[in-house]
Each structure stands twice: as structure tokens, then as C-alpha cells.
Amino acid sequence: MRNIIIGLATISTIALVGCGTSATDALYPSGSSTIVTSADHQKVFAVNVHEGTVSLLDPESEAIANVDVGDEPTRIARVGDRLVVTLRGERSIAELDGTTGEVLRVLPTTGPEPFGVVATKDGSLVYVSVSMGGLIEERDGTSLEVLRTFEVGGEPRWMALHPSGRTLVVGHATGSELTSIDLEDGAQATLELPEHETTVPGSVNGTYPLASRVTGDPTFSADGKTLAVPALFVDNTSGEQGTGGVPSFPYYKAAQTTTLGRFNATVVLYKTRANGQPEENAFSTQLVADFASSNGAVVLRSYLSSVTQSPDELAWLVTMEASDAVLLVDATDSATKPLADTNGIAFPNIAVTNTGRGPRGLAVLDDGSVMVHSFLDRSVADIRYDALREEARGEILNGGFPAATPVNAAIGSRLTESVLTPDELDGMNLFYSAADATMGAAGVSCSSCHFDGRTDGVTWKLMNGDRQTPSLAGVVSETAPVTWTNDVETVAAEAEFTAEFRMGTRLADHRSQAIADFVDFVRLPDTVVPDDAEAIARGKTLFEREDVGCAECHSGDRFTDGLHHDLYDLKGVNTPTLSGISATAPYLHDGSALTLRDVLIRSRDGSMGDTSMLSDAELKDLELYLKSL
């Protein structure tokens, strides 16, 4: 493993950890998570998203019990002596007994795809993010009745609640913004991720801005002085730097350099005020990926799915989902050494342990053990925090050159078996893997861009022009040909093309087909259906009107004719499906239309249907119809 020395290049005086606080404060999580401890902090509960269950594990006896809770349990929180679980697939939350996990009741949410859930320490209030509804619900901790809703827009997923209970910070699935809510007066503020640039060696244009987005569950430090946010900064604009039609190292850089790569996983640390409000201009960006050992024994990239403060409050622990690893990000600032050419990004000291597949959440037991939940393996393991801590200390004492191998892999317990078919399961493991060498040398996974099997909302400058990341949700095989242009008839063929020309490898046929099987397993988003049925009906009539022309190409059950058309100076654009379109912004092949309304206004020029004769009211009806698909 390559050690990278701490350097707080942006804010050297930021408070990274709490001082003088009890270590037990860290046992109560401030951030949403897939795993939570029991009230006595001796057992853990974890969600199994595809299996529709919650598992109860006693680490001491290794006893496991599974409870059916509903469709797609996604995040879990302890509320006093009870548990609350979001059921993303059925617009509900489930209340469970905090000792046995027994389902006490299931309650509806105010919109589709509830995702995150957090609660105050005293259990008086619960907050639920309704991701596809753009809402945050505040619920009474006892009755679970909705007290207030906050319209935050975007796709709110991940949350962190300040220890004071005054401020809630919300991370969105796309875009570079978080939302901060003052829970006392309901005021909202936008928290922008920092702006960073990358320098591309040999480029005549010099530096390029990095696109950014939140990638997982944030957290506050136990003393409330710091907000830690897992984020990904990507170079999506410098081009693929290829020759002869073949990209050269398109998505990554050589290891052990101080310049930034295509994909830069970070923990952004914001200093917070006494009321929990983050200070947007008081931050440090800690790069925790894009490094390797000198002998190649450890290569870690991809993205972070959660961040948690360590039991001793001296470090941050992050789950790197597609690299099957937990990283300790040292939070001490002794022996700081800023590195050159990093554009304000700091390089912390890091220790690493391997985990099961797809680590997504962490929980701390009363004895200081740190348990990691790996959602792909459906397992929970002890990451051996003491050993990680010792390795981190050793790296500092040894001048920053640790052993090339990580701490022994965490040994865990399989909670349940998968409900996926063997081919779907193999495909899911490949789709989420940045560690499998057969998926390519790039060190990124399919899920790095097709986030959660959907889209990252980013437009990329590729060899054949700007291309917006298409969503892979729904049975994509039903919408062939796939991708934006060309006659790629199957998802497997597209997987092979992407692996060869973007990830630097060749997939065996059975592997590309397994990926296709998993992609077809991913369901369509549960999108908002507007309440105005009459407006939707009017919009449908407009959509099908011959002079408007939408249905001429967007036809059939999946709203595509399966053909390609010349569009906006690009030849051979495949007609994309409109199923679930409201969850796939930005729009058009180059991402140039930020909203559906932008698409409809663009269509006034007659290049894609013709909306020039429609009034603003009619455009609104047509937009509502599209959102209902």
C-alpha cells in the first residue's frame, strides 16, 4: 500500500477531530447507514436490499436471525428501543422491535423511493429522505406521523444529523450540491462541494475542472465540529487522450504520482458552526484513492459509500464499495507535508483492510469493535480496528513507507443467501467491481459511472464527442439497440465494447453476458406521478399528436422505435426509451438539456418533433405526462 502524508492544503487549522469528548459518543451514528447496533451496542442489524430482509447478528455467539421486512430495505436507524427501515421499493418505512427485529408496523411515505433515515439521540424525531420525491420527512419518534416535509429537490439520499439535533445535511445522488436544513426554523442552504482542477500531462490546454458528486453516507464528528462527506471528483472534460481511435489510459493515471487522475475518491471535511451549519469556505479535501503499492499488491480506486468516525475519534473510516476495502484516514496532523500540483487536495496517511464484496456501512460496538456491512456478499465482519490503527501509526513512524500488503482481510459472517440467479449474481459482482483484474486495469467499476445501476448525471468528453451517462435501469435489452449511437444490438456487446475501449481489457463472453443479466435485473426507478390526472391526459394527447411528433419515434411499450435518427449534427442517434425519464437528467446525448422543460423548448426548432405551436400551458401538460412515464 502506498502511504500518502497528510497535508491540509486548503485550511490548515480546520478541526479534524473532537477533543475531550467521550468515546461512547461515537457509538451513536449521526449519518444514515445500512447497519446499526442494538441499544446496548452489542449486536448489529443490517439490511439485505435484494432479499427484502433485515439480519440480526450477535458477533459473540455468531447467531444470525433474518426477518422479512418488505421491498428493498435500504437504510436502517435505531430510534430508542426500536428500529426504522426505509423500504425503497414500496414507498414505505417499517418499524421493528429493537431487540428481536420483529416487524411492528409498516407506514407509507409521502413519495417514491424512501432512501435514508436518521434519528435524534433521544429518539424524539426521525428524518426520512424520499429520494425520487425530492423530499425530507420529519416524523415523530413515537407515532412516526409526519410532522413536516422539506422540499429539497434533486434526488436526496444520504443524510447526517448534527449531534445537537439542530442541522440536517442531505446528499443528492447527482450534482455537486448538498442541502443543509436548519431544523429550528426550516431554512435551507446550499452547500457546494469544493472546486478542484486537474492537470493532464502533455495537454496543450493545461488544466481542466473536475466534476463532483456525493457518493455515500456522510457523518458528523462526535463533538459536532466537523462534517465528513464522501465525494468523487472526476475529470470528465479533458478527453480520452487516445491515438488511432484507441484510448490510452482513459480512466486512470499511473500510480504513485502527485497529480490527480480521472477518478478521485475523497473525504471532504467541513468545519461546522455551533448549530451544526457547515462553513462552505472552511474545508479540506482528503484524497483517499488513486494510489498503489510499489509492487502492485494493493490497488484502490473507485468511490466511497460511507464515512464513519473511528471509536477513538482519531481517524475517519471509509468504505470503498467497488474495491472491497475499508480505509483508515488518519486525522492527526503531525508531520504534515503538502505535496505539489494537487490543486488544494490533501493526501492523508492511510491504512487499509480488505472486506467482503461491496462494503457499504460501518457500526461501532461497545467494546470498540468496528463492524463492516458488505451488501454484495450480504455479510458483516470485524475490520480489526486496532490492527489498522497500529499500521497507520507504523506508517508515520517509518517515514511513510509501510508494508505493501494490507492488514489481513476482515473475517465475517454471511447473513443470508442471494435471491439472484447465479448469472445475475456473477454479473452484479462484476458490475460493482473495481478490484477484479479481469474487469480492466482502470481501477474503476461499471457502477462508478452507472451509479446504483442508473446514472451519475455526468456528461463525458469521449473520442466520438460529448456523451451523457445513460441510465441502465429497467430491462435495457428491451430497448435495443443500446448506447447512444451505432448498431450495438445487445447489452453484452456494449459491455464488451466499454471494457475494451474504456477500461482496458477484454471480457470473456460468459462475463459480458452475466453483466447483461444483472443490468436487466435492475428495475426502473419509481418516479413521481403528478397528481393532476387531467393535465397528464392532456399531455398524452399532445404527445401522440401527429404535428407534435413525439410518438413517431418514442412508440411502443418502452417508448422507442428501436431505430436511429440524425439529430443535432449527430448521425445515427438511437431513440432512447422514455420509461423512467424523469430520473435520468441531464438530457440529450450531450447532456445539454438540464431539464425536461429544456428538451421541450429545444424541440421548438423542429429537429426533434415540433413543439413550436404549443403554449406554455401545453408544454407544462406535456412535461407532466413525461414525468408520469
> How big is the Rg?
24 Å
| Strand composition percent | 25-35%
Fraction of residues in H or I helices: 10-25%
Quantity of strands, as a count = 38
| Main pleated-sheet profile | 6 strands, mixed
- Give the total of domains: 4
Mean pLDDT, to the nearest integer, reads 82
- Determine the N-to-C terminus distance: 48 Å
* Low-pLDDT residue spans: 1-25, 242-258, 292-298, 334-341, 395-408
Shape category? globular
Structural class, please? alpha+beta
Tally of individual helices: 9
What's a concise summary of this model?
With 629 residues, the chain is of the alpha+beta class. It folds into four domains: 1-12 and 194-417, no CATH class; 31-161, 7 Propeller (Methylamine Dehydrogenase, Chain H); 420-526, Cytochrome c-like domain (Cytochrome Bc1 Complex, Chain D, domain 2, Orthogonal Bundle), CATH 1.10.760.10; 528-629, Cytochrome c-like domain (Cytochrome Bc1 Complex, Chain D, domain 2).
Describe this protein's structure.
With 629 residues, this protein is an alpha+beta fold. The protein folds into four domains: 1-12 and 194-417, no CATH class; 31-161, YVTN repeat-like/Quinoprotein amine dehydrogenase (Methylamine Dehydrogenase, Chain H); 420-526, Orthogonal Bundle (Cytochrome Bc1 Complex, Chain D, domain 2); 528-629, Cytochrome Bc1 Complex, Chain D, domain 2 (Orthogonal Bundle), CATH 1.10.760. Helix content is 14%, strand content 31%. The chain is built from nine helices and 38 strands. The strands form eleven sheets. Strands 19, 20, 21, 22, 23 and 29 form a six-stranded mixed sheet that branches. Strands 1-2-3-4 form a four-stranded antiparallel sheet, with no helix packed on it. The chain has a four-stranded antiparallel sheet with strand order 5-6-7-8, with no helix packed on it. Helix 2 (422-431) packs across helix 5 (509-521). The model is unreliable at 1-25, 242-258, 292-298, 334-341 and 395-408 (pLDDT under 50).
